[in-house]
Amino acid sequence: MKQSLQKANSLDLLDKFDPIVELRASLPFEKTDPFKVVIEEVISETEAIIGGRHTILAGTNNYMGMTFNEEAIEAAKKALDDFGTGTTGSRVLNGTYGGHKALEATIADFYGMNECMVFSTGYQANLGIISALGGKDDFVIIDADSHASIYDGCAMGNATIVRFKHNDVEHMERRLKRLPADAGKLVVVEGMYSMLGDAAPLKELLEVAKQYGCMTLVDEAHSMGFCGENGRGIAEELGVEHLADFIVGTFSKSVGTVGGFAVSNHPKFDVLRFVSRPYIFTASLPPSVVASATASIQAISRSGNRRAHLWENARQLHSGLKDAGFSMCTETAESPIIAVHLPDVMIGTRFWEQLLEEGVYANMAAPPATPAGMFLLRISVCAQHTSEQVSEIIARFKRTAEKVGLEV
Amino acid sequence: MAQTATLETIYGLIGPLNKKSVNLTPATTFASDLELDSLTVMDLVADIEDDFDIILPLNMLPDLETIGQVAEAVETIVAKG
User: Fold this and answer.
1) Which one in A21, A60, A143, A356 has a CA-CA gap of 20 to 30 Å to A275?
2) What is the mean pLDDT of residues A270-277?
3) What is the CATH number of domain A29-64+304-404?
4) What are the φ/ψ torsions at residue A14 (nearest 5 degrees)?
């Protein structure tokens, strides 16, 4: 009996991650590690202290620069005083406050839609909607470059998952043709893809999806705030919102806080509150976050000038880097995400590291998070960047290229 | 066991990806024998789908490790129509 309690020769469950440990150890970083960056002090929407250095933030997805919006901060402080630090409960139990309902009404109004559900993160919004919609006999059709939250929503649901080549309308159509005409089908696409900053041909994708009787979900996480006249996203910009049955978004980018949402005109939409597990089995957003999101979205809806400046920044950065000879991931500035190809892992890691030393924080993106094995340096510009800061980012990119021996 | 014709078609599609000229058999695995990365596998799956005019659902892929398993899955799906 005693013997059976002795440690058996069993498998260590963490052994399967050894290749990942090896891969990370093989990256040639010398001074810093991109996965362990600590922001010590935040000076503004666009500047911080990292490693004791004054650094321009150019990789924070803070597109509209709302993290220090005065109205949002005031609203959050008031909510903290009035409602406390957290709800300590699910949306379907004690976690729905007046603020949550007001936020949902604000977003529904912003999108001109009848219904809105607020989730605790953008990740959970995709997880919650896709997993609930995709039932056993249904099909969910997704773009190959979809965000992890879309893939995970598929994995959590029971539908059959069909994948088509990134932004390839014809490739999608060939697959839709093969699906049973009478089955439930959901096409999921993103308005803007976060790694390369490339926009989807949303009009064509949604029109074909509708032609084959599919319901459609558009994730506007990286396009809300600055695409379309009111900042609702690519679907608004292209005039195809009527072809989207569901629009999903996040508060953690343009809105400047955390949380997610889904809007729809579907008359039965509300039932999802009772079947979507990532909505039910988690605590709701704290009242202060809800209040700042509400104020921020209201501010975004009247931020035409800020949108215009953001696009100016994106174009200035894109053309500046292109003129300097960098290999750009998109021909033009399709979004505030400006990505540059780097030739290999060695140059890529050294470039990222040196750029941080020069005082610019951007994102290093490597496979498998990037398409087609690409190694990228990804910048997200902010509406609060001044044109001087953008010029400075370009100058520091050039200096970094010289220092790491990248020929441009 | 999958039919020869199905296997031959799949061998043909793998051909250009078979950089190390591995001898292809039904037991050949995509990951360890052919050393295909996940993105290449994705393109191969799309080619197989288009060639046989079928859908190979994403949910099914983790169970398909060898060429023979893919061929059998393809035949099952084709038979179902």
Assistant:
1) A143
2) 98
3) 3.90.1150.10
4) -90, -5
Are β-strands A139-143 and A185-190 bridged in parallel, bridged antiparallel, or unpaired?
Answer: parallel
| Domain residue spans of chain A | 29-64+304-404, 70-301
Query: How far lies B31's CA from each of A22, A85, A398, B9, B66, in Å?
Result: 18, 49, 40, 19, 9
Does the structure show a pLDDT above 60 at B48?
Answer: yes
Q: Which residue has the tokens 């990505």?
A: A339
- Let me know the angle formed at the C-alpha of A102 by A98 and A103, rounded to the nearest 5 degrees: 120
The two structure tokens encoding residue A151: 């893939």
Burial grade of B13 (CB within 10 A; 0-12, 13-18, 19 or more): middle
Which pLDDT score, from 0 to 100, does residue A4 have? 55
pTM: 0.94
CATH of domain B4-18+30-80: 1.10.1200
Residues of B within 8 A of A371 (CB-CB) are: 39
Decide if B63 touches A, using CB distance below 8 A. no
Q: Would you state the pLDDT for residue B1?
A: 75
Distances (CA, A) of A26 to A21, A96, A106, A126, A167: 9, 48, 48, 34, 33
CA closest to A374 among chain B residues: B39
Say yes or no: ipTM exceeds 0.90.
Answer: yes
B78 at the A interface (CB within 8 A)?
Answer: no
pLDDT at A220: 98
